Amino acid sequence: MGGMKMDQDSTKDKLKGKGNKLKGEAKDTWGEITGDAEKQAEGKMDKLKGEAQDSVGSAKDRLSRK
């Protein structure tokens, strides 16, 4: 895989991760405010998904620099 493609992929993963973390934070907070445990759980799952995507992006960055 080329270095430039890997950099683009890692950036895309990181951006998706940040988006999911923000979405998750909003859902988590909304669920907490409204007492909606299901929405709060969805938010926590979205945050975890975002953290995983961010980690994948960081791993791709490290691989492309080797």
From TrEMBL:
Residues 1-66 are annotated as: Disordered. InterPro entries: CsbD, UPF0337_stress_rsp, YjbJ_sf. Residues 13-64 form the CsbD-like domain. Residues 1-52 have a biased composition (Basic and acidic residues). Belongs to the UPF0337 (CsbD) family. This is CsbD-like domain-containing protein.
